[in-house]
Design goal:
By secondary structure, the protein is α/β, with parallel strands linked by helices. Helices cover about 50% and strands about 25% of the residues. It contains five helices and six strands; from the N terminus they run H-E-E-H-E-H-H-E-E-E-H. Strands 1, 2, 3, 4, 5 and 6 form a six-stranded mixed beta sheet that branches. A hairpin with a 3-residue loop joins strand 4 and strand 5. The termini are far apart.
Length: about 150
């Protein structure tokens, strides 16, 4: 009888605490995607897709928060220290993110060159790049999904 008295509340606590832990996501910021020679009609769709994919695994900072952090980083850094890399690092510190993602999508004429980079707080960088020949929107979305999954830590 005593065992049941402690077992039921213990089991309930264990079952209720697991979903709470599973919902904790690392924080990240997605820098604006750099598009080169890519038709405007694809840009919005690809941007939305990348944000949706990343938000499945990370707690993403909003575009407004990122913009405010960029302005604060530029104000904080002196002109001789204001490189893109230094600015992004300060932005990450200001937003207290664990990961920073940047993507570049270039229409080369031979295909779409897709590059995704993840940088962590220790400045460790992981990079994925693929050339999507005869690329379509659906094909590019599928490749980007795979690249972003491959960039997940662990």
């Amino acid at each position: 009888m005593k065992l049941r008295k402690y077992l039921l509340p213990g089991m309930a606590w264990l079952l209720l605490s697991v979903p709470v832990c599973a919902q904790i996501k690392p924080t990240a910021m997605l820098l604006p995607i750099y598009f080169v020679d890519l038709d405007k009609k694809f840009q919005g769709s690809l941007n939305n897709h990348v944000q949706t994919e990343l938000s499945s695994y990370y707690e993403l900072k909003s575009e407004k928060e990122i913009e405010q952090a960029r302005d604060a980083a530029v104000d904080r850094l002196s002109s001789e220290n204001c490189t893109e890399e230094a600015c992004v690092k300060v932005m990450g510190e200001l937003l207290d993110v664990e990961y920073t993602f940047s993507l570049e999508i270039i229409d080369t004429g031979e295909g779409w060159d897709l590059t995704a980079v993840r940088q962590d707080v220790d400045s460790v960088t992981s990079r994925r790049n693929e050339l999507c020949k005869n690329c379509s929107l659906s094909k590019a979305r599928k490749i980007l999904s795979g690249m972003l999954i491959a960039l997940r830590p662990g």
